[in-house]
Design brief:
alpha/beta; Rossmann fold; 7 helices; 45% helix; 15% strand
Amino acid sequence: MDRQAVGEDLQRRPILAVSGREPVDLAEQKSLRRCQPGWDQCHVIQLAKPARSTAQRSTNNTSDENAASTIALNITALTRLTRAALPAFLSRNAGAIINIASVMALHSLPITSLYSGTKGYVVNFSRGLQEELAGTGVRLQLVLPAATATEFYEFAGMPLSAFDPAVVMTAEDMVDAALAGFDQGEAITLPSVHDRALWETYDAARATLFAATQTGEPAPRYQAA
């Protein structure tokens, strides 16, 4: 795979699905149907980011069109494409899916409620699917990039020129890091996180908290004195 070409395509397209090396724009339903004959390829790579029309605003100030576009691209298209690929992959017990979420799935700002919510879906959908695929020859990698130099920021009303260049990763570097994580067998890749232990601590705390919810008795603080 030409990683530079993938990075360049990522800079131009609202959503990219790469089956082999062919980019497909999933902003339109017909594009999804067009990519389905390629499921005999070894890998499907989904690189998802909001459409150009999706400006980052507060929930109250977001248009119905922008809200629907964000949901359609980050949730509907990703889910449909993943489910379309699975039967062929499972039938031959081989293949891989790489879903791109965002670190904003782990955090939300006043103007990212909708975006963060959709990326949170990508995280939980992908992690659940990883459990479903355990013991098969099909892999799913989840990637959570931070700020990446794509057109998203311009159309979101947050020009990259307003960011410290030190915190913005190039699209090519993000793709390289994601594929390096894939080669290393990572289930979850955070390209910009240098200390892997931070994620491991976070995820362990998540599992501990979930385990603590598994009781039918209200916590003492919610019980009448």
